[in-house]
Amino acid sequence: MTYYDLHVHTSLSIGENSVEDVAQMAKRLGLSGIGIVRYYLGNMEKLPQVEGIDIISSVMLKVAKPDELSGLAEKARAKAEVLMIHGGDYDINRAACENPLIDVLCHPELGRKDSGLDHICVRAAHDNNVAIEINFREVLESYKRNRIYILSAMKKNIELCKKYETKVVTSSSAVTVWGMRSGRELAALTHLLGLELGKSIETTSTIPEQIIKENREKLAGKRFEGVKIE
Amino acid sequence: MAEPKMLPPSMRPPKRYIVFEVISDQPIIYGELVNTIWTSTMEFLGELGGAEANIWFVHNTYDSKKQIGMIKCRHDNMEKVRTALSLISIISETKCIIKIIGVTGTIKSAKTKYLGEQNINI
C-alpha angle A34/A55/A199, rounded to 5°? Predict the structure, then answer.
């Protein structure tokens, strides 16, 4: 089984460790690929490649207003293998779900006491092929009452995703190497939050793999809207 | 004092043995690891969840050099214990990751598969 973690921070964003250190730990944890997150700043350099592991370029968009999102997404799309949105605000969450250029909506419940998503957002996410992220770091770094709020918000999001068959992605969102976990352990959290075991394992294996494969084909000019060149 | 008789094998509750490895930059003391796992289980699963999971440490299998150990739990609570273990990030001020190497149904198969012991019967 090949496991992927699409959301890992390094010194290129808010993380502490270098890409090489993170890649070594990922190899030790049995991951096949890691998404190195960078915030979109216009020019994006190529990421260093490490032998034995797939280094994926994940681009995170952080917008203040929902109307800035679509313009920025069009610019960033050409440089990103995985395009992510920094969620948390309801309007931004909804705009991200309604935009087909976006791949993953990260932590929609960040800094909130509710789940940040409703049935309209999740239905739109299913129509536009946007995946909803389950963020492990939020659970790992919270305690007592806050952890309960976050877990119940995630549980509510998973219930909605199950109803509308929206894609779910589980990622560690680690800022140090000690925040990383193997794919099977990330999947175990998603399973406890209400997804069936088989589907929760898919959230760290086949679903990220499919997102990366499709986007790489699009970037190479082999796949267009509805057409694939063999 | 008289003790209850051991249940026949068909009536014993099904269990799983989780083989784990502690990844850390400094060596970990086993007693502190056990305390941290109990605390994490209590925090994440609560008293009732902990009782249902029926966690038991297989002390004599711990390898302090490789930092590999074994935990027994109920078979239907495996994912809960796996998550409780993954939510540990610090053991006595040392940052660490608990990585699960594998899960088996008997101690014998855990030893032969993951702890590098030779199976004499084969």
Answer: 35
Burial string for A166-180 (b: 16+ CB within 10 Å, else e) reads bbbbbbbbbbbbbbb
Tokens at residue B39, please?
């605390």
Exposed/middle/buried for residue B99 (C-beta within 10 Å: 0-12, 13-18, 19+): buried
The residue type found at A168 is: V
Kindly determine whether residue B100 and residue A181, on different chains, have CB atoms separated by under 8 Å. Answer: no
Q: A-chain residues within 8 Å CB-CB of B86?
A: 181, 185-186, 188-189
Rounded Cα–Cα distance for residues A184 and A172 (Å): 12
| Contact state of B87 with A179 under an 8 Å Cβ cutoff | no
pLDDT tens for chain B, residues 1 to 122: 889 999 998 999 999 999 999 999 999 999 999 999 999 999 999 999 999 999 999 988 888 888 999 999 999 999 999 999 999 999 988 999 999 999 999 999 998 988 877 665 55
State the DSSP code for A133: E
Q: How far apart are the first and last CA of chain A?
A: 26
State how far residue B87 is from chain A, nearest Cα, in angstroms: 6
Spatial contact of A46 and A76, defined as CB atoms under 8 Å apart: no
How far apart (Å, rounded) are the C-alpha atoms in residues A73 and A39? Answer: 12
Q: Please state, as a whole number, how many other Cβ atoms lie within 10 Å of the Cβ of residue A124.
A: 20
ipTM of the complex, rounded to two decimals: 0.89
Say yes or no for a CB contact (<8 Å) between A188 and B89. no
pTM of the model: 0.91
The residue type of A47 is L
* B58's tokens: 């297989």
Quote the tokens at residue A98. Answer: 């309604």
